[in-house]
């Protein structure tokens, strides 16, 4: 079975704090892709990053960084020096080559609230 | 230019009515999807079409009928609306059902409220 688990339902931090959003995935496929999406209060889904199963290099983009560890089946997302504009629901998602129709399997989402 | 556009953005209707949501993409993608986001924010796939052919139908009630007149359009028709159909419906597109390294491009969502 394929599954994505985001155990943190809600996180609240104060501006400028660092925060890590956890994502654990399950799949038996050897080739797969992991994604993070952001859903701000306005409701749209914004693509943040894609990572394939053969590339375990961590990635940094400004204040955002991602830590992919196949050994623990985790793809965690860290926001450094959080800002109020980071307040949103963040989704981790999985897609595999063998996935019927290429569907994205989403985690439950983590609602991040950054307070001034 | 909006890549994936959905209309309407908001839809309020009474129980028992029939309604449609339209989706169009101008990205040249060949696969389109409908996802439902419930009140707890959970996103679940409903349908997937590849080049007008139905690929995924995830145990969705028969009252929901997708229609894809061409690969750039995927509409969702809902008959006999029920209170439980209230949700946000997202359309999305991607390049190739088998090309997993591509993510989706999502529309902005349609918030359906059944009263």
Characterize the structure shown.
The complex is a heterodimer of chains A (116) and B (115). In chain A, strands 2, 5, 6, 10, 11 and 12 form a 6-stranded mixed β-sheet that branches. A 4-stranded antiparallel β-sheet of chain A has the order 3-9-8-7, with no helix packed on it. Chain A has a two-stranded antiparallel ribbon with strand order 1-4. Chain A is globular. Chain A has strands at residues 3-5, 10-14, 19-21, 24-26, 32-39, 46-52, 59-61, 64-69, 74-79, 88-96, 105-106, 110-115. The model of chain A has no long low-confidence stretch (mean pLDDT 92). With 116 residues, chain A is mainly β. In chain A, strand 8 and strand 9 form a beta hairpin. Chain B has 115 residues and is mostly beta strands. Helices cover 0% and strands 55% of the residues of chain B. Chain B contains no helices and 11 strands. Chain B has strands spanning 4-7, 10-13, 19-25, 31-37, 43-50, 53-57, 64-70, 73-78, 87-94, 105-106, 110-114. In chain B, strands 2, 4, 5, 6, 9, 10 and 11 form a 7-stranded mixed β-sheet that branches. Chain B has a 4-stranded antiparallel β-sheet with strand order 1-3-8-7, with no helix packed on it. In chain B, a hairpin with a 2-residue loop joins strand 5 and strand 6. Chain B starts with a strand and ends with a strand.
Please give the structural blueprint.
The complex is a heterodimer of chains A (116) and B (115).
Chain A: E1 3-5, E2 10-14, E3 19-21, E4 24-26, E5 32-39, E6 46-52, E7 59-61, E8 64-69, E9 74-79, E10 88-96, E11 105-106, E12 110-115
Parallel strand pairs in A: 2-12
Antiparallel strand pairs in A: 1-4, 3-9, 5-6, 5-10, 7-8, 8-9, 10-11, 10-12
Chain B: E1 4-7, E2 10-13, E3 19-25, E4 31-37, E5 43-50, E6 53-57, E7 64-70, E8 73-78, E9 87-94, E10 105-106, E11 110-114
Parallel strand pairs in B: 2-11
Antiparallel strand pairs in B: 1-3, 3-8, 4-5, 4-9, 5-6, 7-8, 9-10, 9-11
